[in-house]
Write a structure and sequence with these properties.
The chain is of the alpha+beta class. The chain has helices at about 5-10, 15-30, 40-50, 105-115, 140-150, 185-195, 200-205; strands at about 35, 55-60, 70-75, 90-95, 120-125, 130-135, 150, 155, 160, 175-180, 210, 215, 230, 235-245, 250-259. It has 3 domains: about 5-85, Ribosomal Protein S8, Chain: A, domain 1, CATH 3.30.1370.160; about 90-165, Alpha-Beta Plaits (2-Layer Sandwich), CATH 3.30.70; about 175-259, RNA-binding S4 domain (Structural Genomics Hypothetical 15.5 Kd Protein In mrcA-pckA Intergenic Region, Chain A). The protein is built from 7 helices and 15 strands. The strands form 4 sheets. The protein has a 6-stranded antiparallel β-sheet with strand order 10-15-14-13-11-12. A 4-stranded antiparallel β-sheet has the order 5-6-4-9, covered by helices on one side. The radius of gyration is 21 Å and the shape is globular.
Length: about 260
């Protein structure tokens, strides 16, 4: 048995984490690779935090493409090889004419959940503008959705299975920069990285719109470190790179912004 209570220390979503521990114990017992449902970035961060201390199991997250936010996790005994091909994932093309009634990510997600399936069965959704969207789902839902997902907003749609290599992934644009700050405070570094005033950044933090390593952070004074990832809803992500201390005891920080 795994040390459940030790693993759950400091975990926010204990219910999801406990379910993943159950699956890990199943993988150990059966010598088979077990897959979770799709996990959100905060849930995935919790799972990775739990399992990095264990030596008897290995995990491999995969969401269909390298930048996927929602991912399933394959869990196996450490003696077994684990590859992305073992993470069961399917892709759907949801096509329609959205020229006069444009649909957002929320609209497509709402239509998918409106068929009766739960959020955990749906991965990323890639909106394609006026021609529709592509969605990543668990394979067992494909047939049901091909029959049931027939409308998004007021637009009739045709839903069909497609190959994962047909996904229209937009590579994130990267912008490299360096800033010098008096401290490693979240509001100072994030305001420099996202090109906005410190007061505006503080407002976003207070509003709960800022995450660090996929966890909600509501303290502007939160201390960042090299390797941290700052995400703001609708504005992209900021990776904290190398940090050096200057002769005047200030911090020279390399930043990479993804939009």
């Amino acid at each position: 048995m795994l040390p459940r209570e030790d693993l759950l220390k400091g975990i926010e979503d204990r219910e999801t984490a406990a379910r993943v521990i159950d699956q890990a114990e199943q993988a150990i017992k059966t010598w088979e690779t077990v897959c979770t449902d799709f996990l959100s970035p905060p849930e995935l961060a919790d799972v990775q935090q739990m399992f990095h201390r264990l030596t008897d199991v290995v995990i491999l997250p995969w969401g269909g493409y390298p930048q996927a936010e929602r991912q399933r996790v394959a869990i196996a005994r450490s003696e077994l090889p684990v590859e992305t091909s073992q993470v069961a994932i399917a892709a759907l093309d949801i096509s329609g004419n959205f020229l006069f009634d444009s649909a957002t990510h929320r609209d497509f997600l709402g239509a998918l959940l409106g068929t009766g399936i739960v959020r955990e069965k749906v991965g990323d959704i890639i909106v394609l503008g006026e021609r529709g969207a592509q969605a990543i789902v668990v394979p067992e839902m494909v047939g049901f959705l091909e029959l049931s997902l027939t409308q998004v907003r007021s637009v009739p749609v045709k839903t069909r299975r497609m190959d994962l290599n047909e996904l229209k992934i937009r590579e994130p644009k990267k912008k490299e920069m360096t800033t010098v700050e008096a401290s490693m405070r979240l509001d100072a570094i994030a305001s420099a990285g996202f090109g906005m005033s410190r007061s505006k950044m503080a407002d976003l933090i207070d509003a709960g719109d800022v995450r660090v390593n996929w966890k909600d952070i509501t303290q502007a004074s939160y201390h960042l470190k090299s390797g941290d990832l700052v995400a703001i809803r609708g504005k992209g992500r900021l990776e904290i790179g190398e940090v050096a201390v200057t002769k005047k005891d200030r911090y020279r920080i390399h930043l990479t912004r993804f939009v």
